[in-house]
Amino acid sequence: MSRRPVIAFAMPESVRQRVFSARTMTEYAGVGEVAGQLTEFDSASARRILGDVEVLITGWGAPRLDAALLDAAPRLEAVLHAAGTVKPYLDRAVLDRGVRVSSAAAANAVPVAEYAVAMIVLAGKRVLPIARRYRDLQEDFDIEAAFPGMGNYGQRIGIIGASKIGRIVIDMLKAYTFEVVVYDPYLSDAEAAALGVASVPLDELLRTSDVVSVHAPSLPSTRDLVDARGIGMMRRGATLINTARGELVDQEALTRRVVDGELFAILDVTVPWILETDHPLYASEHALLTPHIAGSLGAELGRLSGSMLDELRRIARGEPLRHEIAPDLLAITA
Predict the structure, then answer these.
(1) Reported pTM
(2) E strand or H helix at 81
(3) Burial of 193 by CB count in 10 Å (0-12 exposed, 13-18 middle, 19+ buried)?
């Protein structure tokens, strides 16, 4: 038997309008009693709403959820985050008090994985440099002589991080004739076998892969995970794809090898978020830079709100959450 939990949305109105369509808002109202929209938790009006709220729906730019919020929301039982990582918004105190927290990280992982797989395939075909060469020459040229070893058949793809995104990438790559290897210190050999991949040390992955795709979380322990030494190991002509976080890769070391024509780089994330206007990667025919477009944008945002609507329905029916965050895994996940 279902109940109608009291819910409130906590995020900037601009984010709420981007992620939650009018139709989706109607669907939420059909499952729970909508108490209001919050952009902060401190005003008297916000406190009145929080006093009744059982489920908070949060998103990008949400106010921070901490012990003070819990004191103002004594009936709060769940937080449904219609975005990826909850770390910028959530104090551990929320989980410690027994509030269930779910996020749309799995939903947000899908377009990132789709983008990464597309870039892996394009990297193997050398689409970026060939397109630029063709644009400059505007005539036929010997492609195989100019780009020896191009093509995707039997190429080794190295996946750094068996994260949510990394595992979707691995699954999608089964449609191709790739050899896929993975580095993840938390991945057992049995889990790797179940995924249909080989688990290898990071050095081996970097040294032997034709394409390296980064999908590890950003943690203090993963900063410069692909460091200057590792970049130096990569075989000439290999491609590094980063859709995770810029700080996972030694960008200066990577830039040197890319500008020298030794490596290719496809970077959806950098440090800083937007590179300075004179950065050499902009001009390199061996680099493709995009402004963090791999994650959910446009039509893909509906997957985020839909994922948390499903979680709200589970709460209403008294069922376990599908994407609940385990407190003991918070420190090692994105």
Answers:
(1) 0.92
(2) strand 78-81
(3) exposed
Walk along the chain (334 residues) in steps of 10 and give the mean pLDDT of each run: 93 97 97 97 96 97 94 96 92 92 96 98 93 92 90 97 96 97 95 96 98 95 96 97 98 98 97 96 95 96 97 97 86 64
What is the enclosing helix (H) or strand (E) of 280?
helix 280-283
Say how far apart CA 311 and CA 64 lie, in whole Å. 21
- Strand (E) or helix (H) holding 56: strand 55-58
In this structure, what token pair is assigned to residue 300?
Answer: 């893909």
Q: Quote the CA–CA distance of 113 and 171 in Å, as a whole number.
A: 10
* Torsions phi, psi for 178 (to 5 deg): -100, 155
CA distance to 85, 115, 227, per residue, from 249 (Å): 20, 19, 6
A 10 A CB-CB count for 11 gives 26
Q: What is the DSSP letter of 249?
A: B
**DSSP assignment letter at 59:** -
- 65 contacts 325 by C-beta, under 8 angstroms: no
- Copy the structure tokens of residue 217: 């979380």
Count of Cβ atoms closer than 10 Å to residue 33 Cβ: 15
Q: Are 80 and 102 in contact (CB under 8 A)?
A: yes
* CA-closest candidate to residue 162, choices 189, 129, 122, 133: 189
Contact 48, 69 (CB under 8 A): no
Say if residues 243 and 268 touch (Cβ distance below 8 Å): yes
**Residue 254 CA, distance from chain mean position:** 21
- DSSP state for residue 226 in the 8-state scheme: B
Q: What are the angstrom distances between the C-alpha of 94 and each of 97, 121, 135, 140, 308? A: 5, 42, 55, 62, 18
